[in-house]
Automatic annotation (TrEMBL):
The keyword Transmembrane applies. GO terms for molecular function: amino acid transmembrane transporter activity. This is Amino acid transporter. It is a multi-pass membrane protein. InterPro entries: AA/rel_permease1. It comes from the Bacteria.
Amino acid sequence: MKRDIFKKESIDTFLKADARLMRTLHTKDLIALGIGAVIGTGIFILPGHEAAQHAGPAVAISFLLAALVSGLVGMAYAEFSSAMPVAGSAYSFGSVVYGEIIGWILGWALILEYFLAVSAEATGFAAYFNNNILAAIGFELPKFLQTGPLEHGVVNLTAVLIVLLVAFIIGQGTMLSKKVENIAVVVKVSIIVLFIIVGLFYIKSTNYTPFYPEQFHGAPFGLGGISTAAATVFFAFIGFDALAANSAETVDPHKNVVRGVLGTVVIAVVLYVSFTLVLTGIVNYKDLNVDDPAAYALKVINLSSWNKLITIGALIGIFTAMLTMFFGGSRLVYALGRDGLLPGNFGKVSKKNKVPMRAVVLATIVQAAFAGFVPLTELAALINAGTLLAFAFISFGVIPLRRRKDIHNNGFKMPFYPFLPILAGSCSIYFIWMLPSLTKIWVSIWILAGIIIYFVYGIRHSNLQKNK
């Protein structure tokens, strides 16, 4: 049998396969999913580290840059979702416009993104919960149940349990998960807004001087620190791919996906920039290299009693981010199983809840294992690399998408074509270049492993290669 690794999938094949999924998500649900992913660890941990290490108070500009580029890329995703409302997001889109091998590489990169994101969020959740909630009631887990073997423990029990709880909610179907997400997003956004309002009264203008410290200047054009911080904080904006991954379960995706993406961008940029400006105004950037910058800032201004409120916001924020990433990751595994690139059982959908349960189970096992046994704080950049790779391909992919005569799109189209798709793709490549060298080495190894799996298993079992 002749095999063609650049053979392109038919959109009709995906649409027919995904007809088994139930369309229940509306614009408000997609915005909740997007905010659920975007407003999580990114806002509660990253601003402090990036201000202290790379950009000073100008970290607000880094978040603004990351949000603007994500918004541009989000429009590319929205056009793809309008033209191809199918599960699998960048993987499915890439398979149609570039060919199977590129689609697989994007899918493989996004598996790294989704799974590690959930595990990292679970680890962050455990740290907040163990140190602030359990400690407050006088209960402390044994040390060997707080960390994995690499940190001289046995297992991070809280991290494993929270992954299992999220898996249970996801397994009940989109109706339950979207209800939990919608309520939780309102609570955590309210807490963040409250922090911003209260913090405004404690800002010291001297903390903004210098706004962009000279020691962080570097190539290119003196924006090295701001660019590196922006590349790193893309971890905060990985929810856009997850929104597109839910296209097959969205009502009227031609309209609702773009509304969900752009609504998420607007809310996220307002919250992130406001939060970082208040944070660096309360505390000098040099003192913000901590895992709980908001709680630390409240201690500095003698509002320690508010710590529990911030902790609740952090826990809810991280939990909703896990829901969105788990949702997207399980749908990606389902799509790869649906197409034969992974074992076909992963592509089956539960008749009861209309959920790909085998894909959910696999995601649960892998994510719980990483969360329980591996410290993931240093792997945020790896998540960024997979995200930015998908961002670049999808942005440039708008150009061949427009040229496809067999794909009709009567919904959203990216404006200022082809300038904006090229700009969005070029920015994504630039931020990949600005990631640390070690990150680029590790992600290259991951992609190489994916290519080997494709040629050993995927190409032999692919439905596309078999003309199914």
